[in-house]
Specification:
Helix content is 60%, strand content 12%. By secondary structure, the chain is α/β, with parallel strands linked by helices. The protein has a three-stranded parallel β-sheet with strand order 1-2-3, with no helix packed on it. The longest helix is centred in the N-terminal third of the chain and has 12 residues, at 19-30. It is globular, with a radius of gyration of 12 Å.
Length: 81
């Protein structure tokens, strides 16, 4: 199955650690869903890094680990002509 992922969903997973966080954790193990992200997605994360770190109240190594778990489940979607 494929699902489109946006910044708001990832931020929600990092911030609240609720249902969306559990979906990423579950999928990390079972690999049932491929999350499609736009080309600029990871650049947007990088550009907002300090703000994400501040708002989530995670330590930098925790944030890196969580994002690597999410990144391992994503595929960059190609632009359509």
């Amino acid at each position: 199955m494929e699902s489109v992922l946006d910044f708001n969903l990832v931020f929600s997973a990092l911030h609240s650690r609720g249902k969306i966080h559990l979906i990423f954790a579950w999928n990390y193990v079972v690999r049932k869903v491929r999350f499609l992200v736009p080309e600029f997605f990871w650049r947007e994360i990088d550009e907002k890094w300090d703000r994400i770190l501040s708002l989530t109240k995670l330590k930098e190594d925790e944030l890196l680990e969580m994002l690597e778990i999410i990144r391992s489940q994503t595929v960059t979607s190609l632009k359509r002509s």
